[in-house]
Design a protein that fits this description.
The chain is α/β, with parallel strands linked by helices. The chain folds into 2 domains: 1-101 and 259-356, Isopropylmalate Dehydrogenase (3-Layer(aba) Sandwich), CATH 3.40.718; 117-254, Isopropylmalate Dehydrogenase (3-Layer(aba) Sandwich), CATH 3.40.718.10. It is 42% helix and 17% strand. It has helices at residues 14-32, 44-51, 57-65, 88-99, 121-124, 162-177, 193-206, 219-228, 240-254, 291-303, 308-323, 341-353, and strands at 2-10, 35-40, 68-73, 103-109, 128-134, 146-147, 154-155, 182-187, 213-218, 235-238, 263-265, 271-272. The strands form 2 sheets. It has a 10-stranded mixed beta sheet with strand order 2-1-3-12-11-4-5-10-8-9, with helices on both faces. It has a two-stranded antiparallel ribbon with strand order 6-7. A hairpin with a 6-residue loop joins strand 6 (146-147) and strand 7 (154-155). Helix 11 (308-323) crosses helix 12. The longest helix has 19 residues, at 14-32. Bound molecules: nicotinamide-adenine-dinucleotide (NAD), 3-isopropylmalic acid and manganese (II) ion (MN). Nicotinamide-adenine-dinucleotide binds next to helix 4.
């Protein structure tokens, strides 16, 4: 079996973590009888430098031919003042929208013994949830948007249709059925009309899933509850911007943002990417935590290629690596010894190959 993958390394630590995930995929293929055929394409700031666009046509064409996409990260401070067509982030958002990837899964799990968490250990222990983030709607894409002619005002539009909410709700209830049958819908229905519609749709769709316990939480309270009682959460379904913010926060439950993977589903081609960004502050140093990207590759094997045993083998290898104390800089106290990206990757692949 040949897996046809489009790699989009992007910017900053993106290429470093994509390389790590690729090595792990190769080792997994050697054990489970598949091989990876990949093409590497430009996205983000790297693409702007080479072509003037953060999502060149050649990249779109390659993505459309691929069985799945593995993306590193985009973004660099040098583009902060550029107009939207030359911003790295515009390339990523356009890719999600063009591929129609509206369902973004961001699993978060605290692995016992996997480095220190900035939280009290007993609070984080046992946290196991999935942030289900709506990915192609809301403030990110609503129109009209822009600046007034004098640039003394900026504006964005928050819109959600019943269809957009309903398909995410169904996805969430189905996901909850495969987990602990609990779905928390997060909104701001005390203030926003879009959230009132969101809540109505979740209640209506929820009546078709009597075996799933549905509750609703305001997003400000949710930000607090995630830290106070993370074990309360199973599936946390929310709109695009809330999901962006809450998933970074949830990274702290796992131990670090660098551990979180994601899968963007529902479209023509699925995208797999770590939740973190391009981390310009540590790029090029060999310090990047590759686990978010490696676990994204596991999600790819599971969701795009139906290779559950291979996906589980990667997850188990990651768990063993972390539990053995092979930890990147973001997972140890300041000034403590840490493992480099390459060293962590070697240990994970050794676990998969049976050499560790
Ligand atoms: P960031 O996620 O890049 O970094 C936040 C902090 O977490 C930094 O201190 C960084 O060093 C650390 N960190 C992140 N990933 C890490 C990893 N794998 N290993 C170790 N430490 C890690 O967020 P930011 O600094 O707010 O944004 C930087 C750039 O990345 C911006 O241009 C932003 O738009 C972009 N970004 C891209 C994506 C994406 O491509 N999916 C996601 C978020 C941010
Ligand atoms: C993420 C990132 C992106 C987002 C940015 C880079 C556009 O923060 O994937 O979480 O906001 O969706
Ligand atoms: Mn984000």
């Amino acid at each position: 079996m040949i897996l046809n993958i489009c790699l989009l390394p992007g910017d900053g630590i993106g290429p470093e973590v994509t390389e790590a995930a690729t090595q792990v995929l190769d080792a997994t293929g050697a054990r489970f009888g598949f091989s990876v055929e990949s093409t590497s394409q430009l996205i983000g700031g790297a693409a702007v430098h080479a072509t003037g666009s953060p999502l060149p046509e050649a990249t779109i064409a390659a993505v459309e031919r691929a069985g799945a996409v593995l993306l590193g990260a985009v973004g660099a401070p040098e583009f902060d003042r550029e107009p939207p067509p030359r911003k790295p982030e515009t390339g990523l958002l356009a890719l999600r929208q063009r591929m129609g990837c509206w369902a973004n899964l961001r699993p978060v799990r605290r692995i016992a013994g996997a480095g220190t968490t900035p939280l009290r250990e007993e609070l984080a222990a046992g946290a196991d949830l999935v942030v289900l983030r709506e990915l192609t709607g809301g403030l990110y894409f609503g129109t009209p948007r822009g600046f007034s002619p004098a640039r003394d005002e900026g504006f964005n539009t928050l819109r959600y249709s019943v269809n957009e909410i309903e398909r995410l709700a169904r996805f969430g209830f189905e996901l909850a059925r495969k987990r602990r049958h609990h779905l928390t819908s997060v909104d701001k229905a005390n203030v926003l009309e879009t959230s009132q519609l969101w809540r109505e749709v979740f209640v209506r769709v929820g009546s078709e899933y009597p075996d799933v316990a549905l509750d609703h939480m305001y997003v400000d309270n949710c930000a607090m509850q995630l830290i106070l009682r993370p074990k309360f959460f199973d599936v946390l379904a929310t709109e695009n911007l809330f999901g962006d913010i809450l998933s970074d926060e949830a990274g702290v439950l796992a131990g670090s943002l660098g551990l979180l993977p994601s899968a963007s589903l529902g479209g023509r081609v699925a995208l797999y990417e770590p939740v973190h960004g391009s981390a310009p502050d540590i790029a090029g140093k060999g310090w990047a935590n590759p686990i978010g990207a490696i676990l994204s590759a596991a999600l790819m094997l599971r969701h795009s290629f139906n290779l559950e045993p291979a996906a589980a083998a990667i997850e188990q290898a990651v768990e063993r690596t972390l539990q053995a104390g092979v930890l990147s800089r973001d997972l140890v106290p300041a000034d403590a010894a840490f493992a480099t990206t390459a060293a962590i990757t070697r240990v994970v692949t050794a676990h998969i190959s049976g050499a560790a």
